[in-house]
Amino acid sequence: MNADLENGIQKLIEVLDAEIGYTEKGSGYTKFGEWYQKNVDGSYDFSNAAWCDMFLAWGADKAGLTEVYGQFAYTPDHAAWFRDQGAWGTRPEPGALVFYDWSGGKSLDGIDHIGIVTKVDGARITTIEGNVDARFAKRKERDQSKVVGYGYPAKTEAAAASRQNPDTPNPDTTPQSPGPEQPSDQAPGHLGPNLAASSSSAKFLAAPAAEPGAEAAMAAPLLLAALAIALVAGMKRRTRPAS
After folding, report:
1. Whole-model pTM?
2. Is position 219 within any domain?
3. Looking at the domain assignment, is residue 102 inside a domain?
4. What value does the mean pLDDT of the chain take?
5. Residue from 132, 11, 130, 1 nearest 61 by CA
6. Which of helix, strand or coil describes residue 61?
7. Which domain holds residue 78?
8. What percent of the chain shows pLDDT beyond 70?
């Protein structure tokens, strides 16, 4: 994780931490849902909707980390977004988003709730979550029995960089090296002994080209010899007695 992202995550946690104790209104209204409707998706009245994921989207926007955390109101879609970028796993780490299924299932389709991990202590995690106990923003300490998985912002950042510059390898998707560099006798443009022995056309591919004028130089002596033979034969015909 680079220093800029690490600092951004710290800022995100501070932004969310400042909202601990926030309570939705009696009608279910939250400022996070209202913000989401105005800034992300105006097709639905999110101001009174379940807001655990919109709480995180709001915080990521404040911290300038929308690109690596995403903006979602529906938690299964959010989890799938991480998965599709190779940024999904089961190991907790600070800054990762944690996805829960209260029934204990492990399918993305069954995800009910989301939070952000702020601390890992063995098998237990400390999180900040919105819409906890149906209406609050709280800091929680939980075990992982209901965790479906985690979304990692560092990996979505790497995936975004790879899309912007295809020549930049993504450490999570780049194939392993095939092995040591080939010996110089098998470098491109030169067939090594193993390939030459197994290829019927190797001798033609590897044969050096003739020097310019070499073929003409080889043909000249043969031409002179032919002319000399022709001259000798002509002289014999001229000196032979008439029959």
Report:
1. 0.68
2. no
3. yes
4. 78
5. 11
6. helix
7. 3-164
8. 67
Residue 174, in any domain of the structure: no
Contact call for residues 113 and 75 (beta carbons, < 8 A): yes
Q: How many CA atoms, within 13 angstroms, populate the side-chain half-sphere of residue 168?
A: 9
Note whether residue 29 is domain-resident: yes
Confidence category of residue 1, pLDDT binned at 50, 70, 90: confident
Contact 81, 169 (CB under 8 A): no
**Is residue 75 a contact partner of residue 149, using CB atoms and an 8 Å limit?**
no
User: Per-residue pLDDT for 235 more than 70?
Assistant: no
Number of domains the chain contains: 1
pLDDT computed for residue 162 by the predictor: 74
* C-alpha distances out from residue 214 to 87, 210, 211, 217, 219, Å: 63, 6, 5, 5, 9
Q: What is the CATH number of the domain that holds 15?
A: 3.90.1720
Give the tokens for residue 113: 């709730």
Which sign does the torsion angle of CA 108, 110, 115, 120 carry? negative
C-alpha neighbours within 13 Å on the C-beta side of residue 28: 9
- The Cβ of residue 26 has, within 10 Å, a number of other Cβ atoms equal to 7
